[in-house]
Write a structure and sequence with these properties.
The protein is mainly alpha-helical. It has 2 domains: about 110 residues, Serine Threonine Protein Phosphatase 5, Tetratricopeptide repeat (Alpha Horseshoe), CATH 1.25.40; about 110 residues. The protein is built from 11 helices and 2 strands; from the N terminus they run H-H-H-H-H-H-H-H-H-H-E-E-H. The protein has a two-stranded antiparallel ribbon with strand order 1-2. Strand 1 and strand 2 form a beta hairpin. Helix 5 packs antiparallel against helix 6. The longest helix is centred in the N-terminal third of the chain and has 38 residues. It is elongated, with a radius of gyration of 29 Å.
Length: about 280
């Protein structure tokens, strides 16, 4: 029976192999070191770039009040930052804010370009819904009726639970009504009321109130439209087929800068107040 090799034999054998093959081993170690070092360096550089971009974005003065216009030159500064740091979350936010700012300044065609660019570059971002809504509003503001309706409807389909869905329904219904397509407009107004009834907190939202007003106006102009099935509206004492008279409405014309920009800024502001990079 053969005796077992002492514990140190394996080590001696390995050292002998290493000595005989030291050149290939050294080369392999160098390659591995370079690869690992390169990955670490790239990750470090990416992190530093994110921090630098976030700092640059925080240095651009943005209004804290959603209804306040940004200082002159803000859109140019945001676009420059977006071009300089296109692969960072701060760069993505800058591009989205540039579209919002251009919209606020009444430069709707340029705003449309930036929203489209954001969707093309950051379509998987959690902020894509903001750009989609901004795109629809920009087309609306340019009186591109059919294109705006299509984008509003695409927004509703893609983001049914988004806080701006009722605004999108109102925008699409308003444009359908203005272009003589009253039946689909009534359907959208009714959909808004039905959705609001499921959550009483939303029932007094400006968009829902305006939808009720527009329904009554449509029924006065064309009583035949009222024959369509209408959602019942519950009150403290009874149930009506036609919505009750609401308090004075706050008009929500999405073809103006105020609502679209307010929506975008209100939702982006909590993130932009932080200097820490956030993945888009």
């Amino acid at each position: 029976m053969e005796s077992e090799a002492p514990p140190s034999a394996a080590l001696y054998n390995f050292l002998g192999w290493l000595n005989a093959n030291k050149k290939p081993v050294v080369a392999g170690v160098v390659v591995v070191t370079l690869v690992v070092g390169g990955v670490f360096l790239r990750n470090w550089q990416k992190e530093q770039t994110e921090i630098t971009a976030a700092k640059a974005l925080s240095d651009i003065r943005l209004p804290y009040n959603a209804g306040e216009l940004p200082p002159p030159g803000t859109d140019a500064a945001l676009l420059k930052l977006a071009a300089t740091y296109p692969q960072t979350s701060a760069g993505a936010h800058a591009l989205l804010l540039a579209g919002s700012t251009l919209f606020a300044e009444g430069k709707y065609a340029r705003a449309q370009e930036q929203f489209e660019k954001f969707i093309g570059q950051h379509g998987e971002s959690r902020w894509a819904s903001h750009a989609s809504f901004g795109l629809a509003a920009s087309l609306d503001a340019q009186n591109k009726t059919n294109e705006a309706i299509a984008k509003y409807e695409a927004f509703i389909k893609s983001y049914p639970a988004d806080p701006a869905t009722d605004q999108a329904r109102l925008g699409a219904a308003r444009l359908l009504e203005q272009s003589g397509r009253e039946v689909p407009a009534v359907e959208l107004y009714n959909k808004m009321i039905e959705t609001a009834m499921k959550n009483p907190k939303n029932y007094n939202q400006p968009a829902v109130i305006e939808s009720q007003e527009r329904l009554r106006d449509l029924f006065k102009k064309n009583p035949a439209l009222a024959i369509q099935k209408q959602p019942p509206v519950k009150t403290n004492t009874s149930t009506f087929v036609v919505p009750p008279t609401p308090p004075p409405a706050i008009k929500t014309n999405l073809a103006t800068a105020t609502n679209a920009v307010k929506f975008l800024r209100t939702n982006l502001q909590p993130v932009l107040k932080s200097n820490l990079p956030v993945k888009p």
